[in-house]
User: Fold this.
Amino acid sequence: MYEDIYFLNPVEALRVATEQNRWGENNYFLQVCYYDGEKIESDLVNLIHLPIDNLLEGLAYGTLRIPSKIDFEGLELSDEIKVNVELNFNMSIQQVQMYRNQFNAQYLHKMKNSAPDFSEPLRFYLSASSSTQVMQYVSKNIADTLQAMGYDVLFELSHGMEDTSSLKNMSEFNPHATINVNHLHNSFLNDAVFNFVWFQDGMPILLNEEIPFIRGRDHIFVLVKGLKELLNKKGIESELLSFMMNENIYKSRDEIKKDKKIVFIGRSYAGWIEHIKNDVSLNEIYKGALEIFEEKSYLKNLSHQDSEIRFLMEKYNKTKEYIDYIYMYLMRDYCVEKLCTINTDYEIEIYGHGWSQNPIVAPYFKGIVEYGEDISKIYNSATYGYCPGGYVLMQRTLECAFSETIPLVLDVRADKQDVYNEKIEESIEFFHIKDLELILSREPQEKRYDFIKEQYGYKHFVNRCIEIMNEELS
Assistant:
């Protein structure tokens, strides 16, 4: 495991910071490199200029982790000087930690005991981790929408360097409401503060036996019915809310010519079944799941009486998680492989991590594309955006529709995980795996996107939060 370091030599600090050393679950923690001397012009988030004369105050009042080691690399110093400097450094760090603990306790006390004044303009606090693939962009889009609507917003993007006990920035901002994606983050909030939580994935807090603490002003949204059912079992109310889009990023662009092309953007799910490949029964379970999937394009969730997932669990004596791994693989990799093997006049383009290792998909692989405008522009250039998945209103579906490219969506409507107005179907073309080649042999139908853009922009989510606040405050 790496340590957070204070460097006396800025050149050495730059060298180590450039390595972007990480550790912990999912490599969440990023090594912090503080340094003395002249400030270096750099975009590295983990390279922190802190003159040694300002060490005590800079660290005590800071919000990043405190360094545990001092580095002398590249400096010609005697052993005696190094010992003295290191001794003084360690004494300073002990003092810093004492002050930091006191300050963090004060920030927590302030958050818990300071009710915001609702006669003031509303302030919203959001945070996200840079290590997440989707959640950080959802939070950022909500923050941008709130700001565009005239609200005061503090959005903090963590990089795995932060002191997790520090509430300094939030307590100083004193929000009227916080908005969290996939996390409750409510234990330090004053009872008067509104907390809007949007669960989009099966997080541990939903899947385990723990009954989480829910405040009176915690309001929970969930992406699909399956997540709502998990909360219902814990006695927690929630409201269904589909993905939303930032219409300033995902939009039509008349200057980009549409070609006879179908594109898929997303990572390979090959890793989902990697750890069960050695199971001798895998092939039999896979063939059974594939047969159902080929016929229906989905496997019904456990909540259905005639659940195919339950049927496979009982037939092969496996857990739901085991079957889910195979299902995820079918919904993603198998569907993409199918697209790459059918007979079609459409040019096929595949983007995302993991596809270059798939011999079926690799000839159509075009590289990695970052979230946002670049994705929208790729969709702008295509007739269809390929959208296989476990429910209709995926983020991918909306990215295509808002970019005014026809979303070709796996038809899982009978699974009834989504709750949506059927009017959105005027924007979508549905497919079953067995009919994919036939659909792509026909002329595409004209689609309308007005309704879906109106109902699934981030303004809709913000307006719902404001509506809830107004109802309770009145």
In short: The first helix runs from residue 10 to 18. Residues 258 and 381 are 4 Å apart (CA to CA).
